Here is the input.
Amino acid sequence: MAITSFPFDSQTVTESQYSSLFREFQDSGVVSAYDAPGFQLGAGAGMTVTVQPGLAILRGHMVQSTAAEVLTVPAASTSARVDRVVLKLDPATNSITLVLKQGTAGSSTPPATTQTDTGIYELALGHIAVGANVASIGSADITATRPVVGHRVGVWATSTRPTSPRKGLLGFNNTLARWEWWDGSVWTDLAPTVSWSSLTGKPATYTPSAHAHQWEDISNPPSSLPPTAHKHPWGDITGTPSTYPPATHSHTWTSVTSKPTTFPPSSHTHSQYLESGDTISWANGTKRAHASQVGGSGTYYAVWVDGSGDFGRNTSSIRYKTNVRDAEVVSGDVLALRPRVYDRRDFEKPDGTPVTGRKDEFGLIAEEVFETLPEIVCFNEEGAIETVRYDLLGVALLPVVQDQERRIAALEARIEELAG
Here is the structure.
């Protein structure tokens, strides 16, 4: 394996060797600040473009232009194309020249650059959009593509910073212990310390991105989760019923709109009020089952009303009875009953209307009757004493009267016997 070293005194160094050496020092490109005009393309007069003076390195070789150059753009055709301007290194002619490479009509892609290691090497400076049938090139038709080089990473103190830095020069400032770069005006910290207060344009709220949490990862979850007030689109509800009977509810009269001023009843009929099995509601608060008096030649019945509000006739026929037997009534139990005069307590109707109780009413006290004659006492649904069956009081008196009749008859017979 051959080893070659260069350059040394009294040694012949070839062009290729110098090119290999220098290209390691710097990449190929225009030696300029990015926003400086070195080898920058501009619109010229008519179908021409200008190229500004500049310095460039191509594969270790240098080219310098000290005056603006003018390149003629080939005439436009009936189809648009894209041309390219390059710096062309040709070792065979020992030259680097400006060249305009014409694009293909109808194509929006500029011609490719040639970049070999030892032969032709082209550095693209920009491309030109040539419209169909145009007679001039404008600034909007030119796109710069030149690479800019000449920036090196250095290390310095604040007192030894480069005196004429190009924009973008990067280095480590040992005095400030920071990486910094030249922004064209001042040295700027590459990675400044950021505090929340120094941030600009920060949002006022932080909407989380879509994510999920495992239930077991949540601390202090509630034992129940009542939903907040919300709505569901009808289309999202599954298992909807085919009909919608309203739930039990009520309306206040004032909330009803468009209500009629009168209420004619619909066609209807009434059965006899006092037929067995008929039910009459007490909602009217009067407990009047019929008219105040009756007339005619029909049959009349006493009426029973049970705790459910059902009416029934007070029948006495054997057809409605079974297990018939004699009643044993002790005369003393009946005679122990005490007639009373009393005032009824004031009360309120279900609608809150106050009612004054009746005064000086004549009757019996059901609790006192229960002590001697419980057979004629009635109880309410809760099992408490409610009233006296006054209609049975006459039945209970029959044995007393019959016993008195027997006693009177016996006494009269005894008197006649003694008188004879």
Q: What stands out?
A: The radius of gyration is 61 Å. Residues 390-419 form the longest helix (30 residues).
